[in-house]
Amino acid sequence: MAQSLDGFVARADHRLDWLTSIPTHGDDHGYAAFTATVDGIVMGRGSYNNVLSFGEWPYTKPVIVMSKSLTQRDVPETLTGKVRVTDLEPAPLMKMLADEGWSRAYIDGGLVVQSFIREGLVQDMVLTVAPVMLGEGKRMFGPWGGDVGLELVASTTFKSGMVQLKYRLPASNPEPGA
Amino acid sequence: MAQSLDGFVARADHRLDWLTSIPTHGDDHGYAAFTATVDGIVMGRGSYNNVLSFGEWPYTKPVIVMSKSLTQRDVPETLTGKVRVTDLEPAPLMKMLADEGWSRAYIDGGLVVQSFIREGLVQDMVLTVAPVMLGEGKRMFGPWGGDVGLELVASTTFKSGMVQLKYRLPASNPEPGA
Predict the structure, then answer these.
(1) Tell me: the pLDDT tens digits for B43-53?
(2) Which of A5, A88, B36, B104 is 20 to 30 A from A140, alpha carbon to alpha carbon?
(3) Per the structure, how many domains does chain B have?
(4) What pTM did the predictor assign?
(5) Is pLDDT above 50 for B178?
(6) Which residues of A touch B163 (CB under 8 A)?
(7) What is the pLDDT of residue A177?
(8) Residues A46-70: what's their mean pLDDT?
(9) Statement: residue B110 has pLDDT above 80
(10) B12 interfaces chain A, CB cutoff of 8 Å
């Protein structure tokens, strides 16, 4: 995931122009190498619709869309076998995917990531900090009900000015009342 | 300055326990080396009161306290010659300090830093990101009236898990309506 230095994931109107306008110098910021390590991608309806709007489907790995309103019938035929819709909650979903043989899922999208973190289901978090401050917009993270302590695993600086921070998360949920 | 990964500078009740409880392994995160490069420190009343509450005055460099409510008479005698109170706005204050021979001031404290950034008076920003997410509290930065683009100058990782990001700021004010 990427956030502005002041903690926003998108503008108030969901636009990502501040992010996509940063020259990448042909660097994918480790994205391909990272997605190669996962069995599939889990996202919410918002991210899914956003990706659909790109026109071309960018993922080679299986994608799970978590939604209470979408059903499998809403998925375009061209994406059959590539996209599965589920109304499962995070923990049962992870259990199901583990039963299917997944060992590592890439959880994408602010709200979905937050819910997985709250349930202690995220082991590693890779957050890329963009060299810009927006001042306002959609915050990347919301309240946790307590502190979430992190262990810094790695930090990588890119020519674009992006700084990629990799953290390990605690196995347990945050303790309320910090 | 230091912020949590999710962009907070303090808890809602101003506490910094989340920051001070991170083991530093004896590392000052470059603080002494940094303050050695400045002619003095500019802070707001909130930071000043916070530092006063430490009991021992930690600064060897001159400190300017920006306040409309405090006067020089409010400064304890023990700090005479060390602390100056001013009601000047950022630009005239910087002009005065430059006239006195200052070439580089360390601007501290969330709100004061924000006002200096808004007026295009900050050249370099060093932000240390602590390995913790608070979920709520006092945000480090507020709205700018436009994007503030940054140029990453350096990134340093510490054993504490702190990541120190040094940015160069644009010389001009943010353009509204980004």
Answers:
(1) 999 889 989 98
(2) A88
(3) 1
(4) 0.89
(5) no
(6) 152, 155, 163, 165
(7) 44
(8) 93
(9) yes
(10) no
Which three-class secondary structure state does DSSP give residue B129? strand
User: Does some domain include residue B53?
Assistant: yes
A154: CATH: 3.40.430.10
Answer yes or no: is B177 within a domain. no
B-contacting residues in A 78-107 (Cβ below 8 Å): none
The CA–CA distances, whole Å, from B42 to A97, B60, B84, B107, B139 equal 55, 13, 10, 5, 20
Whether residues A163 and B147 touch (CB distance < 8 A) is answered with no
Instruction: Annotate A15-40 with b (16+ C-beta within 10 A) or e (fewer).
Output: eeebbeebeeeeeebeeeeebeebeb
Cα→Cα distances A136→A9, A15, A52, B142, Å: 10, 12, 26, 7
Asked whether the beta carbons of residue B150 and residue A132 sit closer than 8 angstroms, the reply is: yes
A176 occurs within a structural domain? no
Q: Which domain holds residue B138?
A: 2-168
* Per-residue pLDDT at B173: 54
Closest CA to B81 of B96, B59, B101, B66: B59
The answer to whether the Cβ–Cβ distance between A136 and B143 falls below 8 Å is yes
pLDDT at A3: 95
Mutation pick from A19, A152, A164 vs chain B, by most beta carbons of B within 10 Å, is A152
- State mean pLDDT over B133-153: 94
The alpha carbon of residue A63 is apart from the nearest alpha carbon of chain B, in Å, by 27
Interchain contact, A132 vs B143, CB within 8 Å:
no
Q: What is the mean pLDDT of residues A160-177?
A: 80
What is the average pLDDT across B77-98? 97
Q: Where is pLDDT greater, at B97 or B33?
A: B97
A144 vs B: CB within 8 A: yes
Do the chains contact at B131 and A151, CB–CB below 8 Å? Answer: yes
Which among B133, B152, B175 is the top mutation candidate for probing chain A, defined by the most A β-carbons within 10 Å of its own β-carbon?
B133
Q: Which chain A residues contact residue B148 at CB under 8 A?
A: 132-133, 135
Residue B31 lies in a domain: yes
Written as one string, the DSSP assignment of B25-81 is: TT--TTHHHHHTT-SEEEEEHHHHHHHHTTSS---SS-EEEE-SS--GGGS-GGGTT
